[in-house]
Design brief:
The complex is a heterodimer of chains A (303) and B (157). Chain A has 303 residues and is of the alpha+beta class. In chain A, strands 4-5-10-6-7 form a 5-stranded antiparallel β-sheet. The model of chain A has no long low-confidence stretch (mean pLDDT 94). Chain A starts with a strand and ends with a helix. Chain A is 34% helix and 24% strand. Chain A is globular and about 60 Å long. Chain B is 32% helix and 16% strand. Chain B has a 5-stranded mixed β-sheet with strand order 2-1-5-3-4, with helices on both faces. In chain B, strand 1 and strand 2 form a beta hairpin. In chain B, helix 2 (89-96) crosses helix 5. The longest helix of chain B has 14 residues, at 106-119. The model of chain B has no long low-confidence stretch (mean pLDDT 96). The chains are: A alpha+beta (303), B alpha+beta (157). The interface between A and B is medium-sized, with 34 and 36 residues. Chain A: Keywords: FAD, Flavoprotein, Oxidoreductase. Chain A: Residues 1-175 form the FAD-binding PCMH-type domain.
Chain lengths: 303, 157
């Protein structure tokens, strides 16, 4: 690896200063599972690495009446090990349990997964399904962006020079809420999504009607794709195969995949429909309290 | 060249101070600066697990950690697995089950398996295979490794 400077600030303001001092050649470091690999392979040339993990706000996990605030640098391991998250946001574990293997989860963060901005990132469709807000800090102060607006292209996002992601806000799940993330890969573990689908629903009190829904796809467009029309089509509809078929067809129509080593355009279009339908079905089961996170874990090969 | 940094850490239970360049990974610092050559570099990008160490109780790839990051932290490497000159049960069972051939992946597998049994002393075969999915072995076909880990778990039960 090329020579770099290493700094580990302990406050957000110090991190802003350190990034500003480095100009365009300083980058924040969280788990390093993307950044250090890119530095090792010479794909990224930097002068300074700014380790954010000594800043309490970046590592904090807090659940209150306002919902969950997740520090951007908190590892998947720390999320998986957090019983309060498992209870209140079980679908989040769908993603944190399948990003890399055990030792990658020991370091990798959801903030890093989001800022790496891969179209195939396993957490982003799930974050969209959960209506997450991204809290950003930088030389011009703080601002917030809806997660579906965060990524702007492969490896690109809305962060301006010197800005970094501080935390992710998850609203408190409404009553009768359920969510799920599913991905298709040709093996059991340690692979990149051919297609991923995140979905969430809010059901009526008698759990027979879908009040609102959100659907998002991964690996079928230059960015993770929020399929607004699929959620809109489900709003007010009965929980039925016909409703889910309609949403699946809309997701398939929205998908604009490429053919590459992982899959062809027709395969990815087909998978967009199938995974949307399955993720919705699991989200509905969870909203009804009839399927646990561990059962879904088995569907994803984890558990 | 960037100035060297002094890093204070607890390494295999002992307070340790070492000098490193900021660009060095933990794996490089362990092998090149501290002489602990048990951790291996297979891929250098987090795919193979041959460099796995336990950092503050959590399994990580040491090739994806910068050495200065471990300031004030605790690291256990393969050299810290045996106690009082006795092989750890995992090391003993790897020998008995012939769970290694060329041996390059073995330190990573033993550190990963140690981390698994610390987390879950009674794993199923599926648990073992899932936990070890990030460790690659090109010799054994994995079966003998999985059997050795299960044997240790059952012996402790």
């Amino acid at each position: 690896m090329q020579a770099i400077e290493f700094v580990a600030p302990t406050t957000v303001d110090e991190a802003i200063s350190a990034l500003a001092a480095g100009g365009g050649r300083a980058r924040p470091l969280s788990g390093g599972t993307d950044l250090i690999a890119q530095l090792q392979e010479g794909r990224l040339a930097l002068d300074t690495v700014v380790d954010l993990k000594r800043i309490p706000e970046l590592m904090a996990i807090s659940i209150s009446g306002d919902g969950l605030t997740l520090g951007a640098s908190a590892s998947c391991h720390s999320i998986n090990a957090n019983q309060a998250i498992r209870d209140a946001y079980p679908a989040l574990i769908d993603s944190t349990h399948l990003i890399g293997g055990t030792q990658i989860q020991g370091r990798a963060s959801l903030g890093g997964n989001l800022c790496n901005s891969s179209p195939a990132a396993d957490s982003i469709p799930n974050l969209i399904a959960h209506s997450v807000t991204c809290n950003i800090a930088g030389p011009n102060g703080r601002r917030s962006v809806a997660v579906e607006d965060f990524c702007t292209g492969p490896g690109r996002n809305v962060l301006e020079d010197g800005e970094f992601l501080v935390s992710l806000d998850f609203p408190t799940p409404p009553a009768n809420f359920g969510a799920a993330y599913l991905r298709f890969i040709p093996r059991n573990e340690m692979d990149i999504a051919v297609v991923g689908a995140g979905a969430s629903v809010v059901l009526s009190d008698d759990k027979s009607t879908i009040q609102s829904a959100r659907v998002a796809l991964g690996a079928v467009a230059p960015t993770p794709l929020y399929v607004v029309e699929a959620g809109d089509a489900l709003a007010g509809q009965p929980v039925s195969e016909e409703s889910l078929d309609k949403a699946a067809e809309l997701a398939k129509a929205a998908a604009k995949p490429i053919s590459d080593m992982r899959g062809t355009i027709p395969q990815r279009k087909h998978l967009s429909a199938v995974l949307t339908q399955r993720a919705l079905r699991i989200a509905i089961d969870r909203a009804r309290g009839t399927k646990t996170v561990d059962e879904l874990g088995r569907l994803n090969g984890h558990g | 060249m960037a100035k060297k940094i002094a890093v204070e850490t607890t390494l295999n239970g002992e307070e340790t101070v070492f000098l490193c360049e900021p660009r060095q990974t933990l794996l490089e610092a362990l092998r090149d600066n501290l002489g602990l050559i048990g951790s291996k570099e297979g891929c250098g990008n987090g795919n193979c697990g041959a460099c796995n160490v336990i950092l503050d109780g959590v399994l990580v790839n040491s090739c994806l950690v910068l050495a200065p990051e471990i300031e004030g932290r605790s690291v256990v490497t393969i050299e810290g697995i045996a106690e009082d000159g006795e092989l750890h049960p995992l090391q003993q069972k790897f020998l008995e089950h012939a769970s290694l051939q060329c041996g390059i992946c073995t330190p990573g597998f033993i550190v990963s398996a140690k981390s698994l049994l610390d987390d879950n002393p009674d794993p199923s075969e599926h648990d073992v295979r899932l936990w070890l999915a990030g460790n690659l072995c090109r010799c054994t076909g994995y079966d003998k490794i999985v059997r050795a880990v299960l044997d240790v778990a059952e012996s402790d039960a």
